[in-house]
Amino acid sequence: MARSAASTEGTGKTLAMSQPYDRTYNFSAGPCTLPVPVLEQARDELLNHQGAGMSVLEMSHRSDPFEAILAQAQADLRALLSIPANYKVLFLQGGASLQFSMIPMCFLRGGTCDHVVTGSWGDRAVESACLEGCVNRIFDAKATRYDRVPDLHSLAYDPNAAYMQFTSNETIQGVQFKGDPSLKQTVICDMSSDILSRPVDVSRYAVVFAGAQKNMGPAGATVVIMREDMFERVPQNMHPMLDYRLQAENDSMYNTPPCFSIYMCGLVYRYTLANGGVAAAQKASREKSDLIYRAIDGSGDFYEGHAQRDCRSTMNVTFRLPSDELTGAFVKEAATLKLDGLKGHRSVGGIRASIYNAFPLEGCQVMADFMGDFAKRKG
Ligand SMILES: Cc1ncc(COP(=O)(O)O)c(C=O)c1O
């Protein structure tokens, strides 16, 4: 297994210890690294899934083994997030991006909604919602390059709004809300990039959605957790594939679901449950992100964090170097240590280290050592 880096200070040679299977430290924002034991199980079951005589890749979604996979995945996600009985768990397609359309198509329909925009994904959600009704941007941090989140309890909500929507963790900018709001409003949350990284009080939300490809599994499935009364709000003339009620009535199998992605999510849920659940994930995420934030804060002004300190994400750490040239050199040198996927999103620049649940602590230590060493040499 990987161990921490042996740093040869001042020479630029931070020696990363090898990971199993000679894997890189994959800091990609998603799709991203998955737990090695989960990948091993998927490998072992690939040709013959638990005696079914075929792979999940080949199996009918109407077969008993796949129905069992789906039911177990739903049950395990319920257990992980303590999802109350009056909520349904759906596995849909189209990514979190399709939720940006389905939500206003089903729940806005010419009315008004409130959006709290703390980054690029929240902004995208507004673009789609505007096609279906009137959107109040009741908070928008664009002027400060999305470096902060507000206190959701201090905002002025429209009493006539059909719902309020926000993004718990903005993947591109690396800003994160630290808890669940307690509001009278119908609250809808995009948790794509921090679901399963902390305990969540699902009862505070009417709808939670998240693409699979960060903390849950490979791309393909989108999880939607919806309070049952919301289904009654869906208009009768909705397109079938966009109709939450129909999707729920068909247990996410109105059409062929993303079977393999659901299977992989199920394995990740099992693995997460067996390893202390979301409370353990939260502790590990804090530990991992602290290593990198400490390297930023301890660098003098060499590294500049993007997010304000109290809004820092435990999932996506974003920071800048003094110049584009140094940023390029940083990424290039990091790659020689198998630190991969660090280039920041083009809209923010700099560096983004995405450290989702499956990202190993050792990788953050290697990264922090490298950051310290690089700053010493180039600062
Ligand atoms: C917070 C957030 N919302 C939405 C999306 C869009 O997800 P998808 O690519 O699954 O449509 C992403 C993708 O990274 C994201 O991070």
In short:
With 379 residues, the chain is α/β, with parallel strands linked by helices. The protein has helices spanning 36-45, 64-81, 95-107, 120-129, 244-249, 259-274, 277-297, 324-336, 361-378; strands at residues 6-8, 13-15, 25-26, 87-92, 112-117, 134-140, 164-167, 169-170, 175-176, 187-190, 207-211, 222-227, 304-305, 316-320, 339-340, 351-354.
Quaternary structure type: single chain
| CATH topology-level fold name of the largest domain | Aspartate Aminotransferase, domain 2
Percent in helix: 25-40%
Number of strands: 16
Strand content bin: 15-25%
Q: How many whole angstroms does the radius of gyration measure?
A: 21 Å
Low-confidence parts: 1-15
Overview of this structure, please?
The two termini are 33 Å apart. Residues 1-15 have low confidence and may be disordered. This protein has a 7-stranded mixed sheet with strand order 4-12-11-10-7-5-6, sandwiched between helices. It has 9 helices and 16 strands. It has helices at residues 36-45, 64-81, 95-107, 120-129, 244-249, 259-274, 277-297, 324-336, 361-378, and strands at residues 6-8, 13-15, 25-26, 87-92, 112-117, 134-140, 164-167, 169-170, 175-176, 187-190, 207-211, 222-227, 304-305, 316-320, 339-340, 351-354. It is 33% helix and 17% strand. The longest helix is centred in the C-terminal third of the chain and has 21 residues, at 277-297. With 379 residues, it is an alpha/beta fold. α1 (36-45) packs across α6, α2 (64-81) packs across α6 and α7 (277-297) packs parallel to α9 (361-378). A hairpin with a 4-residue loop joins β1 (6-8) and β2. The protein has 2 domains: 6-35 and 278-378, Aspartate Aminotransferase, domain 1 (Alpha-Beta Complex), CATH 3.90.1150.10; 43-274, Type I PLP-dependent aspartate aminotransferase-like (Major domain) (Aspartate Aminotransferase, domain 2, 3-Layer(aba) Sandwich), CATH 3.40.640.10. The structure holds pyridoxal-5'-phosphate (PLP). The site of pyridoxal-5'-phosphate has 11 residues, from α3.
